[in-house]
Amino acid sequence: MKIGVLSFQGDFEAHLKAVREAGAEGVQVRNRQQLLSCGKLIIPGGESTTLLKFLEIENFISPLLEFGRKHPIFGTCAGAILLARTVENPCQLSLGLMDIGVRRNAYGRQTESHTQICESAALRPEAFEAVFIRAPIITRVGSGVEVLARSNADPIWVREGIHWASTFHPELSEDRRIHRMFLEAGG
Q1: Each residue's pLDDT tens digit, 123-159
Q2: Does 118 qualify as catalytic in the annotation?
Q3: In sequence order, which residues have a C-beta less than 8 Å from that of residue 144 and are 6 or more positions away?
Q4: Active-site residue identified among 15, 38, 163, 169
């Protein structure tokens, strides 16, 4: 199965490398035809308002929504913002595919970016490294949302049905377990 990585903005190359290292074929997605050739999609981090502008200019919001009704999407950092039902700081348009609320840039400026060792029952027995870069915070999870990992009390990795979101960048770690899990998950 081909795994698409939305490639308008952000570190999509790191996700493509992670997908390959996790054992699948990763393809850049910049148009509807490329999207429809994929079974799953990753929306990488970057700057969510810039990414939204690209999506609007390219008339790509409707194809993403249509794809997301049938196929799994994993949003990391800015990608999680785009998947959220509600966005604050400031409020902005999103795809609303997951019943989560997020606050943009909640950890502060670029200088507050950090790496943290986190635990997840989904990845036991080993912990994993989470890289936070101007990361959002998930402020609300709906009743159908499963929290896969937390940092302190804040959810940082969640799943709802076929969709996943993380406030950190799993592609910037050498650990490929999270990508492998997404590749192997049903949907």
Answers
A1: 988 999 999 988 899 999 999 999 999 998 999 999 9
A2: no
A3: 99, 160, 161
A4: 169
Q: How many domains does the chain contain in total?
A: 1
What global pTM score does this model have? 0.94
The candidate with the shortest Cα–Cα distance to 149, out of 124, 180, 184, 183, is 124
CATH number at residue 177: 3.40.50.880
Q: List pLDDT tens digits, range 4-47.
A: 999 988 889 999 999 999 999 999 999 999 999 999 999 999 88
Residue with tokens 């074929």: 25
Active site residue 179: no
The domain in which residue 82 lies consists of: 2-184
145 contacts 97 by C-beta, under 8 angstroms: no
The active-site residue out of 77, 160, 163, 179 is 77
Selecting among 38, 160, 163, 171, the annotated active-site residue is 171
Neighbouring CB atoms inside 10 A of 120's CB total 19
